[in-house]
């Protein structure tokens, strides 16, 4: 996410654009000479809103798509599991799973990238995390960025993950969900 100063600057810019945007009287059209067009105003508001919803450290190639709207071309399968993540996360998870297997540890995947529609469905079925459920508010899920995975872990695999996942860029960052691991 942008720093507080950057967000404050962007808000000030939007306020300036709002002040400059004067809708025409009824039954007239906006002239090309307007200091700020409706289209540029809408674009500025959309960009500012996207910046406020983008997690800190979000790679630019993901941020441009939006949560739950990552195209297939930006996703990669994790080994032969059928699960997909943002390509760097998928490659790292694949390496992590190979290392675990070499240590005699089995790690399975139960969930990976979630489209926005899948996030809405999950929130409906499992409830919002903020209300005691197990789903993030649609459009805010780490799964929607293709950077989170839910793993099938027995006690040995959980212990292995806690000791080794950081080497592969994964962290356990969601209270109440020891199966949820995020790629940073």
What is the structure about, briefly put?
With 184 residues, the chain is of the alpha+beta class.
3D architecture notes:
It is a single chain. Helices cover 40% and strands 11% of the residues. The protein has six helices and six strands. The strands form two sheets. Strands 3-4-6-5 form a four-stranded antiparallel β-sheet. Strands 1-2 form a two-stranded antiparallel sheet. It is globular.
Helices and strands in order, then pairings?
Layout: H1 4-20, H2 38-53, H3 60-63, E1 75-77, E2 84-86, H4 87-102, E3 108-111, H5 116-126, E4 148-152, H6 155-164, E5 170-171, E6 180-183
Antiparallel strand pairs: 1-2, 3-4, 4-6, 5-6
Name the beta content range. Answer: 5-15%
Instruction: Give the tally of β-strands.
Output: 6
Give the number of domains: 2
Order of helices and strands: HHHEEHEHEHEE
CATH architecture of the largest domain: 2-Layer Sandwich
What is the tally of helical segments? 6
Enumerate the spans where pLDDT stays under 50 for 5 or more consecutive residues. 19-26, 28-35, 48-53
CATH class of the largest domain: Alpha Beta
Structural class: alpha+beta
CA radius of gyration: 21 Å
**Terminal CA distance:** 14 Å
Mean pLDDT equals 82
And the CATH topology of the largest domain? Muramoyl-pentapeptide Carboxypeptidase, domain 2
Physical arrangement of strands within the biggest beta sheet: 3-4-6-5
